[in-house]
């Protein structure tokens, strides 16, 4: 068997196990490591081949430059200026001032960095704001929900994070989670 295939399979298995730390069950403990998303297990990607943007742009500035909308099988959803899908996390408190995604969760679901006063909007109608993320940097919010990327989205437009552990969701232009 080709060593690249074996390495890829091992990395995909490790990524799936890491996703289990991104949700809590009724007792506050982690749920199973099964991934329920619009993508398949073969769609899972490692950090080195994801579309998740770097925290700094070529000019050294931090964060995204805009939020826009995209048409998908899920309907019209919010993406960043490069077309990368953004998500909200049910464990966060809508309108709260903090993210609850820490540790392994933050590795798999990095925050969407940006200053709400500098973000250009294209088709997004919800209120854009920001909180101080767990990394100390400004994290964008939409309709009060902190925004995240999914490390398993390999290219712009991917929605592999949709429905993961029944707590991660894409958003409508108004900032409402699309559940289901």
Explained architecture:
- By secondary structure, the protein is an alpha+beta fold.
- Helices cover 12% and strands 19% of the residues.
- The termini are far apart.
Describe the protein's topology:
Blueprint: H1 3-19, E1 66-72, E2 75-80, E3 87-89, H2 104-108, E4 120-122, E5 128-132, E6 138-142, E7 145-146, E8 168-170
Parallel strand pairs: 1-4
Antiparallel strand pairs: 1-2, 3-8, 5-6, 6-7
Summarize the structure.
This protein has 180 residues and is of the alpha+beta class. It is built from 2 helices and 8 strands; from the N terminus they run αβββαβββββ.
Which terms summarize this structure?
single chain; 180 residues; alpha+beta; 3-stranded antiparallel sheet; 2 helices; 8 strands; 12% helix
Strand content: 15-25%
Q: Could you tell me the number of beta strands? A: 8
* Number of helices, counting only DSSP H or I runs of 4 residues or more: 2
Radius of gyration (Å):
16 Å
Q: Major sheet, described briefly? A: 3 strands, mixed
H/E element string? Answer: HEEEHEEEEE
| Helix residue percentage | 10-25%
Q: Tell me, briefly, the overall form.
A: globular
Low-pLDDT sequence parts: 1-21, 23-52, 54-61
Q: Tell me the distance between the termini.
A: 38 Å
Mean pLDDT: 76
* SS-derived structural category: alpha+beta
Order of neighbouring strands in the sheet with most strands: 2-1-4
């Amino acid at each position: 068997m080709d060593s690249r295939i074996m390495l890829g399979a091992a990395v995909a298995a490790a990524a799936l196990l890491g996703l289990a730390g991104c949700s809590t069950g009724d007792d506050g403990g982690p749920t199973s490591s099964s991934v329920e998303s619009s993508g398949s297990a073969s769609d899972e990607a490692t950090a080195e081949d994801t579309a998740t943007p770097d925290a700094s742009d070529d000019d050294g500035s931090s964060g995204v430059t805009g939020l826009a909308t995209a048409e998908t099988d899920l309907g019209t959803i919010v993406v960043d200026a490069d077309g990368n899908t953004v998500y909200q996390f049910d464990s966060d408190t809508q309108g709260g001032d903090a993210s609850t995604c820490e540790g392994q969760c933050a590795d798999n679901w990095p925050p969407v960095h940006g200053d709400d006063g500098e973000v250009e909007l294209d088709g997004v109608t919800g209120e854009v704001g920001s909180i101080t993320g767990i990394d100390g940097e400004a994290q964008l919010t939409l309709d009060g929900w902190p925004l995240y990327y999914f490390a398993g989205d390999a290219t712009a437009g991917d929605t592999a994070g949709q429905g993961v552990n029944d707590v991660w969701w894409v958003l409508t232009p108004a900032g409402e989670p699309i559940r289901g």
